[in-house]
Amino acid sequence: MKRKVFWGFITLVIGFAIYQVYIFTLSENDNIKPIYLVPDDAVFIVDTERPIDTWDEISSSEIWAHLQTNQQINKLSEGLNSLDDTFKAKKEIFDFIGERNLVISVHVYSPKKYGLLYIADLQKFSKLIFLKRAISNLAGEGYRVTKRVYKEHEIIELYNKETRETLHLSFIKNQVIASYTHTLVEKSIDQYLNPVIGRDVNFVEIKEKTDNDGFFNIYLQHKYLKDYLSCFTNSASLEFLNSNKQAFFYTGLDISIVEGVIVQATGYTNVDSNSQTYLKVLQNSGVGKRSVAKIAPKNTSLYLSFAFDDFKTFNSNLEKLQQENPADFKMYSDQLTMIEDKLDINVSEHIYSWIGNEIALVHFNTELSKNKKDIAAIIKADDIDDAKENLHLILSKIKENTPLKYKQIDYRGYPINFFDLKGFFKMLAGNVFSKMDKPYFTIIDDFVVFSTSPNTIKEIINNHLIGYTLENSESFDDFNYNFEKKSSVFAYVNTPNSYKDLLSLVDNKTRTQLQKDKPYITCFSQVGLQLIAENDLFKSNISFVYEHPEEIEIHLKKEEELKKKLLEELTPYKDSINTQSSENFFNLAPIHPSDLSAKSYQEFYENGKLKFEVDLNDGLKDGSYKSYYQNGNIKVKGHYKKDKQSGTWKAYNEQNGDVIFKKQF
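User: That's the sequence. What structure does it adopt?
Assistant: Structure tokens below.
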């Protein structure tokens, strides 16, 4: 009897072994790709073939350690940390299973709310019933386990008694799907019956082109990006995404970390061939070398570059885009004809002929301007002598053929010109530059610099003269090394420099949150985006550098001191009030009016009281000058003639108003 039992047991073991061999080697694969289970409204899709190792590397990095000190980020990562603890607690099971493909997708399921869906490929292990039971019991005693059925698929519900959250699990063929948002699991089951993204030819194209030798891949579906960002900010500030929503399909990126501090994401983006967007124009216009960093100030907040094979090709493609909208094209044609007739010029000959292969927008915080007009449009010239000759001709034609005022001032040897030619930049480069109206301009090296504020141009001149430019920035040079020299679109953001600008663009609620999160925003001190036209796609590169906030503050102070020292060497005067002498009252600093057509100029103390006022003529001091103490009493009174002090000037006592100094000019 014992012998029969023994041989019966052996027979069962052998039979089970044969069954397992059949399952793992001989049975037909009835597998499904994880992408077929991702709901069609995914904003992001993260795909990794080694999730445990990847999470170990990321969670042990300096970047992650810093981000974990932020309460919101820490809360968002609690699920991942809990998952990490589960991995470690049940290590023997996962050692048995091994590393499996893991897909995480992000979805907006209601206004201001988003959820994550996890999909893990168990392959043939999904055939083992004991494994399903083991996974459903991973939670332990702290959970209550229930089950329900949705469209013939069992959903296991793991209710966390402490957090009162429920993790929803289901098995579909070789995949296990999980989410803390039950609707996402249900949507995933719906996708199994009718997959959308996995069959989208645009997604398939990007997935096939994207490398997978980094930490993980991430895919962005552009049409849902605005909905996702609206979870964090006012949707009114995201209107600029509307055109991208129509133009872009997907972006696929391979994520890696370079030297421990540079996060680099490289891949591809596809564009709707029928989209009527500026990016489509750039895609059809080739690539050009970026060179505006030669004169962009070192403290630049934003450098946005549009480059192409040549301007003739770009302009031809721009006109084709405008022709798609008859009303816009008629407006463009009428404006072009009006300018040519009024000034007796040929735009193609006198403007387009000298433009090179890059047009850029540069934004920075000026020392001279108190307003928000510190944006410059910079054009690289093919032949700067040709540009000077033709621009001089246009200026003379304006003076000759229109009642518009023609003004020119000289600043440190650089003529700054002004002409009131409405719509010039919109005609030149489309709606992207439409707000660059009635510009001032000067010429620096091989570049023509335009701005609606002359003070912005003065600041660029100052920085150029002292060599305080992006090209001479060691940190920018190191960062720029991660990008190709030629591109279609290149955007560079210096986060610490642009932080104040960011605050000015958002509502009060968002501003308060951003102020709290400053160390977690500015720690990514340099951010770059590059798009390179490649056949029907854009080759994409998004990279950013991590620096500890304390190191950033030290660096900013050093830069401020360096710039101040360089400017002191450039400027022949100092505005000193330490001693009582006539020079301290009558040796006045130059002014920098933002409107050269204004009849007067004023500056104010921080308390809002008037500091001084002076009459102007074509941007130069000409007429009465009066300055005041902070208590409102008169300080200095005199007269200017053609920007020079003239006649008798008087300085007054702050308290009793007595004359304390006189000087004849």
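The CA atoms of residues 226 and 538 lie 21 Å apart.
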